[in-house]
Amino acid sequence: MARSQQLYLFLFVVFVFLQLASADRFTVGDRQGWNPNVNYTVWVEKHKPFHVGDWLVFYYQSGMADVVQVDEAGFNKCDASNPISNYSKGRNYAFQLNHTGRYYFICSRGYCYGGMRLAILAERLPPPSPPPSSHRNSAARCRLSSALLALAVSLLSAAALFHFHL
């Protein structure tokens, strides 16, 4: 593999690692899952803000529900005739919020009219907070230092694997 290809692969791995490290995973509907008679508006209020890179995981009963990503008009009318994406296999579906903006999901099996629909606003990840200035946060600093050390070891290991000289 050429050195430039190794560098691109290394940078890609670092980018993916940083994205995964900052992403949150949300189970849509919490314990109730993606089912009828769940107030998804309240669920969104409980968990927002959502950020680019976060994952929404829909758990549902196979054969009884599906997850259809639609535009705002489809969401408002419970109309799945022009889906952006549609998933009905298995019993769960994981969806990553990959850009800023609104996302709309409905169930096309008739349950949308009863509230089985979800609107999410994905925002940019906020910049990191400034370091704490008091000694009360020494445990948080220690965890951050450990995480940075683990990242540095990972990066050095990857560099060694790809024969980079840092």
TrEMBL record:
CDD domains under this entry?
A: Phytocyanin_like_1
What positions belong to coiled-coil segments?
A: none
Entry keyword annotation includes Transmembrane: no
Say which domain of life the source belongs to. Answer: Eukaryota
- The Phytocyanin domain covers 24-124
Record key words, sorted: Disulfide bond, Glycoprotein, Signal
- What family does this belong to? Belongs to the early nodulin-like (ENODL) family.
Give the protein's biological function: May act as a carbohydrate transporter.
Q: In its UniProt entry, what is this protein called?
A: Phytocyanin domain-containing protein
Organism of derivation: Musa balbisiana
